Amino acid sequence: MTANTANIRDLWQNKTYSDLIIRAYGEEDLHCNQCIVYPRSKRIKDDVSKNGHAGAEIDQDEAGRIVIDYDGEEHTSMIIMVHAMYEGDESEVFRGQEPERIVGAIKLAVQDQQFEFAKAAFRALLPSGPNADIHVNGDDMLTVIQTMRETTDKYILAMADKLEMAWMPMLLSNSWSRGHLKRDAIQKFLASMKPREEEEDTSEATAGFVMQTTRDPTPPPPSPAPKPTPKKKATPKRKRQATSDGFDADVPGFD
Fold first, then answer.
1. pLDDT in tens, 107-144
2. Within the chain, which residues score under 50 in pLDDT?
3. What's the pLDDT score for residue 155?
C-alpha cells in the first residue's frame, strides 16, 4: 500500500462531496468518490457498470448518488479495503480492527487484484505489525490462520504459512493451540531455529547473513634473501712528524 499522491483524507466519509455510497451487510454507509474508488477497485467499478450482480444491487439516492448495496457477511470487511484508498498510513487503516476482519479484507483484495493492499493487511496480522497493541492470544490467531486456509487461493495460503511461522512461539506457549498445530509445521519452525554451524560475527548475524572467509591453499612465495652489506675500505692511518715551525704534519702511508 503506497502513500497517496494527494491529500484525500478529507474526502473519506465526506457526505458533501461523495458521489458513491457503498453499503455492506448492515454496516454504516461508506461515502466515497467514484474518481478515487473506480481506478483502485475493478470489481466495484464493474459492479456499477453492469448494474449489479448476484449479491449486489445498484440504486440512486435522492441526491443522485450511486448506491451499491452488497449483501452477505463476507463484505463487512470492505470498509477496511475502501478506507485504505483514502489513507496512506497503514497503522490508521488497521488499528483496532479484529484479525478476522483483516483476513476478510485480504480475501476481498486478492479477488480484486489489489495485491499491495493485501500485503499491507498481511503485515497488520504479524506480531510486530500496526495491530500489535491489540492482545491476540494463540487460540484466536490459530483460528484466523485456519480460516485463511479454507481458501484455494495460493497467494492467501502462502500468507497463512508465513503467519503460522511468525506466531509459532506464542502458539506453542498456549496449550490449546499447541494441541492443534500440525507436526510438520512445528518441525519446520524448530529447524529454522537451529544455530548455524559457521562461526558468525554478531554484527553480521543481526543483518541476516554470514560472511564466509576462505583460505588460499597455495603457500606464499619465499621471502628474498637479504643482500650482503658491502665492506668499507679501511682509512689509512697517518703518521705525524714535526715541521720546521714546530707543528705536527700528517704523513700518509702509515699503518
1. 999 999 999 999 999 998 888 655 555 555 556 788 88
2. 5, 199-200, 202-213, 247, 251, 254-255
3. 94
Please identify, among 163, 194, 225, the residue that sits at the C-terminal boundary of a domain: 194
Residue 216 lies inside a defined structural domain of this protein: no
Q: Are 155 and 166 members of one domain? A: yes
pLDDT at 33: 96
Strands 248-251 and 239-242: antiparallel
Antiparallel, parallel or unpaired: β 20-24 and 66-70: parallel
d(CA 252, CA 238): 5
Q: How many domains does the chain have?
A: 2
The residue out of 178, 194, 210 marking a domain boundary is 194
- The whole domain housing 148 covers 136-194
Output the pLDDT for position 141. 80
The CATH number assigned to the domain holding 98 equals: 3.30.710.10
Provide DSSP, 76-144: TTHHHHHHHTT---HHHHHTT--HHHHHHHHHHHHHTT-HHHHHHHHHHTSTTSTTTTS---HHHHHHH
What's the CA gap between 170 and 164, in Å, rounded?
10
Q: Report the alpha-carbon distance of residue 48 to residue 65 in Å, rounded.
A: 12
Q: Report how far residue 173's alpha carbon sits from residue 251's, in angstroms, rounded to the nearest whole number.
A: 106
